[in-house]
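Hi W., the uracil complex you wanted:
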Amino acid sequence: MEEMRLQKYLAASGIASRRKCEQLILEGKVEVNGKVVQALGAKINPKTDEVKYNGKIVKPEEEKIYLLLNKPIGYVTTAKEQFGRNKVLDLVKVEKRIVPVGRLDMYTSGALILTNDGDFVNRLTHPKHEIDKTYNVTISGRITKEEVEKLEQGVVIDNNYKTRPAKVKILKIEEQKNQSRIQITIHEGKNRQVRKMCQAIHKKVLALHRCKIGNIDVKDLKLGEWRYLTEKEIKSLLES
Ligand code: URA
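Structure:
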């Protein structure tokens, strides 16, 4: 990184507007390498110089990125993998250190958001702000209306947790294969929740795919492909 003016560096780090940063410099509140700098023309090298404002180190804000991956099955969402399994982070080659927003289990495919914005991760995974997640599920056997109602009203998983109301649609009953395809939308995100919900009505999950997070659909991406989220999509996630 090249040298840059001190006030520009401070502003880029989110301290204040450039004009206000000039004022802070003039007021003697800014140090470079341990020395107060009050000259407005001063330049710094962001790589090698240490800048402090009010005694605290100032770092430029990293550009935030948000992307949507269509996760294939056989990949884990953990960043550190001890067992040599494939990681979703190997599918997304970007310079920045990103993390998945929530989890998808190894045998589930579909929509997964990754970002380097920690506040965004906290907000979207906080129980208060959980957003709708929609799954297409293939289960063994023919699902009945009563079973659909049970899933919708809530079933007990993890011994004593009753799942919150969900939306459930029957997509297709495949008589010959003795399978059913259903769509479940949940507003919470307990570990392996959809599998456990199906287990609670004694149905075996044969395939599980998350098709949507909020209104963001993954259908235009092939498995393993990713794209950046649009500003509108990021906003819609934060507002939901
Ligand atoms: N429910 C599951 O069972 N697995 C997932 O990965 C996500 C939701």
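The chain is about 20% helix and 30% strand.

W.
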